[in-house]
Specification:
By secondary structure, the chain is of the alpha/beta class. It is 63% helix and 7% strand.
Length: 551
């Protein structure tokens, strides 16, 4: 059989196809999904404060320092908001645009790096599958670091793959552009999320050196000049924040954020080893249809195929580190998914050439089908439970995907790999807009902060607001930086002093709030109630809005 998609992978056509697919998957829902708690809203609010204050070095959430991540992602969001929106508008889509661009670039880098490593046809198949990964669409829709970190890390790894492959092929040329871009990727990764990109690149290089006899290729990376390039990108901000905070940023980032994650499950995000290995069938879906063939063929070919060895050296050392670290979140392993995607692309090419689909792969395909059916069912069921029902078009898409899932599984089991990959792309293209644009925005009971912010704007426009008991970052982002998040007694004092015009109090804090208001001899008027599920805590809450009657 012919190799996979050689005719599609020529010229600029694959780049245009991948950009188009990425936009179809990453853009729907960008403006309609409310700001998410907690990380996204913390990032967005801190960026908004940068623009409001003009302070672009020290990162803050309200009056508290946010000494967790470097400033790169905040700067990208600030640039996006400045170009596309306005800080007063609090339009969350403008803060998400850098994540969409970064996710799209990551897909293109997978193809560019994979072209040298495994060939244009398999690389195109791998990049196509990478674009469909559920976790990537999730991160592309959030104003956080992770899509940008993926782009920086994938750029660095694509350059490393091209340099290493050239050496393996005996090519004597040593162009400068790829080493420079490699270290640019490392520097940008450091500016976005500290040590993550250097860790992935460094562990891959060490694994390649340990598992191979030829080490001369290492100097093709231009490590001395490269470290200088990365330092030029990262150090100006690092020095500035060190001076600005007198070293407090790095003390907090390492001592209060990084080290606790290495010791125990931070912020209730602990999980045992194997967490990521069990979850990858979902987070990599629908590309996970080819997960087993990709891993199996790469492992079997590790000694005879340099590209398989490179991909395993990219994947295994860092994956082990992530599994061993107690603090776990699904997106932490995202910088390793391009290796999985390229393994899948390589396996797809081998299946196209006649490699059999074994029994284990067929079993995984049934699990894959169940995951797809569950996602489709969620589109149909969840909005009825947490909202007023799904958008009609989302329900149509969710029902339409069911026969596509069956046909895709069957095509894969029969070794009709091109049809199976197209089925994966079609499944994502049908489901993701249904989930992201037709389901999540319809979950009114989860959208407490948007409804509360709307009530505040209607009842006391332009005046300060205090919230007692509901302290989610999305509320600050959607109302104002000076929104007071305070205990019930303090909320009553602020209302009595005229510092705020309106107060929101959750049900169990009302007795303390009303008792303090009586002490301060102020009359209260109940002007509204906002109810819903605070998904960050899993609590059903009622927030009663009060204002003062008279002077």
């Amino acid at each position: 059989m012919p190799p996979i998609w050689t005719h599609l992978a020529s010229g600029f056509r694959p780049y245009l196809i991948l950009i188009g697919l990425s936009l179809v998957l990453f853009v729907p829902g960008l403006d309609s999904i409310p700001p998410l708690d907690r990380d996204e809203s913390r990032f967005a609010q801190a960026t908004a404060q940068m623009l409001e204050s003009g302070e672009m070095v020290d990162i803050r959430f309200q009056d508290k320092p946010r000494h967790k991540k470097p400033a790169g992602a905040y700067w990208a969001q600030a640039a996006s908001v400045s170009l596309l929106s306005d800080v007063e508008a609090r339009e969350i889509w403008a803060y998400r645009v850098p994540s969409v661009i970064a996710a799209t670039l990551a897909v293109l880098f997978v193809f560019w790096g994979g072209t040298a490593l495994i060939g244009r046809g398999p690389a195109f198949a791998g990049a196509l599958l990478m674009a469909t990964a559920l976790i990537l669409s999730s991160e592309a829709h959030q104003a956080k670091t992770d899509a940008m970190l993926l782009a920086a890390t994938t750029l660095a790894m694509a350059c490393l793959a091209r340099i290493w492959t050239r050496w393996q092929d005996g090519d004597p040329s040593r162009p400068w552009i790829e080493p420079v871009l490699l270290w640019v990727g490392v520097g940008l990764g450091m500016l976005i999320k500290g040590p993550m990109t250097p860790m992935v690149v460094g562990l891959t290089v060490i694994a390649l050196l340990v598992t191979g006899r030829d080490r001369g290729w290492f100097w093709s990376l231009r490590p001395v000049i490269g470290v200088a390039i990365a330092a030029i990108i990262f150090l100006p901000w690092a020095v500035a924040i060190f001076v600005e905070t007198q070293g407090a940023f790095f003390g907090s980032a390492v001592g209060d954020d990084l080290l606790p994650k290495l010791v125990s499950g931070q912020e209730s995000h602990g999980a045992p080893p194997s967490y990521y290995s069990l979850l990858v069938l979902v987070t990599f879906w629908p590309a996970s249809l080819l997960l087993w063939p990709g891993l199996k063929s790469a492992w079997q070919d590790r000694k005879g195929d340099p590209s398989a060895r490179f991909l395993l050296c990219w994947l295994i050392p860092s994956w082990i580190v992530f599994e061993l670290v107690p603090t776990k979140l699904p997106h932490y392993t995202l910088p390793l998914y391009p290796a999985l995607a390229l393994m899948a692309g390589l396996a797809a090419d081998q299946i196209a050439r006649g490699m059999a689909v074994d029994r284990a792969a067929r079993v995984v395909a049934w699990v894959w089908l169940v995951i797809g059916v569950i996602l489709a069912a969620a589109v149909l069921i969840v909005p009825h439970v947490k909202g007023d029902g799904p958008a009609w078009w989302a329900a149509v898409l969710a029902l339409s995907v069911l026969p596509v899932l069956w046909i895709t599984r069957k095509a894969f089991a029969q070794g009709r790999i091109k049809r199976a990959i197209l089925g994966c792309a079609a499944s994502a293209t049908l489901l993701y807009p249904a989930i992201l644009a037709g389901t999540l925005p319809e979950l009114d009971r989860l959208a407490i902060a948007p409804r509360l912010a709307e009530a505040v704007d209607r009842l006391s426009p332009g005046q300060r607001f205090a919230s007692s008991g509901f302290h989610e970052p999305s509320l600050v982002f959607l109302t104002a930086t000076d929104t007071a998040l305070v205990p019930p007694e303090a909320a009553a004092d602020l209302l009595a002093d005229g510092t705020v015009a309106l107060v929101g109090v959750i049900q169990r804090y009302r007795p303390a709030f009303e008792a303090r208001a009586a002490e301060r001899e102020i009359r209260l008027e109940r002007v509204g109630v906002v109810s819903g599920l605070n998904y960050s805590k899993g609590d059903e809450i009622d927030i009663t809005l009060f204002r003062r009657i008279g002077n």
